[in-house]
Write a structure and sequence with these properties.
Elements: E1 3-4, H1 5-8, E2 14-25, E3 28-33, E4 35-36, E5 50-52, E6 55-63, E7 66-71, E8 80-85, H2 87-111, E9 115-120, E10 125-129, H3 135-150, E11 156-158, H4 162-167, E12 182-185, E13 189-192, E14 207-215, E15 218-225, H5 227-247, H6 254-285, E16 291-298, H7 303-314, E17 317-326, E18 330-336, H8 342-353, E19 355-360, E20 363-368, H9 372-380
Helix pairs in contact: 2-3
GO biological process, one term: alanyl-tRNA aminoacylation
Main location: cytoplasm
GO molecular function: alanine-tRNA ligase activity; aminoacyl-tRNA deacylase activity; ATP binding; metal ion binding; nucleic acid binding
């Protein structure tokens, strides 16, 4: 059985150990030591990384009572190695795990919901709860959690007997066997946990709920904790300053400035739609009734407007074709006719002018990469 130094001292960054076993696997070499400070993946907490001697520790997993280190080179059995953790990575996980305990414990204490899922991802910590929370509820929990951080409380670890455990009110996400390890944050949480934690809540740093979404019958909340929260704030502060400069308003007024800008854009869009409608009306009005062929080129019509104009022109002409675009980028087209087999016509048109598209009578649509003069010559001769 591997001796787990991280339970005796979660701040142990370096250690010496003896190699008990080393075997080659597909992704590297599985190394088992007599003792380790490397935490194996489990309980929502990712595995530690670092080095064993000259080898990189890529992953750490549990196999029964053993801790297996996946390394990029082998070691002779019986040799002594020096282990060194990637401490920045571990410290962040300790902050995030301890912060999650506080947040989840307060949710349980205030609303009675269970934590049914927990994951420390690359971008944030996600926690799933068995019931719904409003934005006001989340804000309340966040404030209480940060109060616990600022109070710099000692985080306690205990191993109660089976009798003591029966009388203890604690959280747990699964049925437990054998010795149970209890993590207590006074006033916030009592929870069975196998992860690593900081000694005092003041080491956690800020706890911020950044988003939430419905998940199963409850809610999933994304948290930024500790250094990750500070980095998230720095990035968002930088973005806010850039927006503030672009809008020429103080940072605290950016939301109102964006609302006004969106209103202006909506008004401009409505004006453009009205102007475009007048343009289409003019084209239709200028087309004589009963015209044999109506061919129209416009540069700035969207697909809906192209179809609309072609359909309206087909009411006045026997054959209507509308093209939008330019000779450099090509044209989008719609061709309509109630009297011509436009499906067959479209095949000949595409073959002759490097076009793509099709459809069924009485309307086809597609794109063509050809000069306007070539298109007109094909359509009008």
């Amino acid at each position: 059985m591997t001796e787990r130094l991280y339970y005796k001292d979660a701040y142990c960054r370096e250690f010496d150990a003896q190699v008990r076993e080393c075997r080659e696997e597909k992704q590297g070499f599985a190394v088992i030591l007599d003792r380790t400070a490397f935490y194996p993946e489990g309980g929502g907490q990712p595995a530690d990384q670092g080095s064993l001697g000259e080898a990189r520790v890529l992953d750490v997993q549990e196999e029964g009572q053993e801790v297996v280190h996946l390394c990029d080179r082998p070691f002779p059995a019986g040799s002594t190695v020096h282990g060194s953790l990637d401490w920045e990575r571990r410290e962040r996980f300790m902050q995030q795990h301890s912060g999650e305990h506080i947040f989840s414990g307060i949710v349980h204490r205030c609303f009675g919901y269970d934590n049914i899922g927990f994951h420390m991802g690359k971008d944030c910590v996600t926690v799933d709860f068995s019931g719904m929370l409003t934005e006001a509820d989340i804000a309340r929990v966040e404030r209480l959690a940060n109060r616990a951080v600022l109070d710099d409380l000692e985080i306690l670890t205990s191993y109660p007997s089976a009798e003591e455990l029966d009388t203890l009110d604690y959280r747990s996400k699964k049925e437990l066997e054998g010795q149970v390890r209890i993590i207590t944050v006074p006033g916030s949480d009592v929870c069975a946990c196998c992860g690593t934690h900081v000694k005092r809540t003041g080491e956690i740093g800020p706890i911020k709920a950044v988003s939430s979404e419905h998940y199963k019958s409850g809610i999933r909340i994304s948290l930024q904790i500790g250094w990750k929260a500070l980095e998230d704030y720095e990035e968002k502060h930088k973005i806010t300053k850039e927006i503030s400069a672009l809008l020429s308003v103080p940072p605290q007024e950016t939301a109102e400035a964006v609302r006004k800008l969106l209103q202006q854009l909506q008004e401009q869009k409505a004006a453009n739609v009205a102007m475009k409608q007048k343009q289409l009306d003019r084209i239709v009005q200028e087309t004589p009734e009963g015209k044999e062929r109506a061919v129209c080129f416009e540069e700035d019509l969207n697909p809906v407007e192209v179809r609309m104009l072609a359909d309206r022109l087909s009411k006045k002409a026997r054959f209507a074709a509308v093209f939008s675009g330019n000779e450099e980028e090509g044209y989008k087209y719609v061709i309509c006719s109630a009297e011509t087999d436009v499906a067959a016509f479209g095949k000949r048109f595409n073959e002759a002018l490097n076009g793509r598209g099709g459809g069924r009578n009485p309307m086809i649509q597609g794109s063509v990469a050809a000069k306007r003069a070539q298109i007109e010559e094909f359509l009008l001769t």
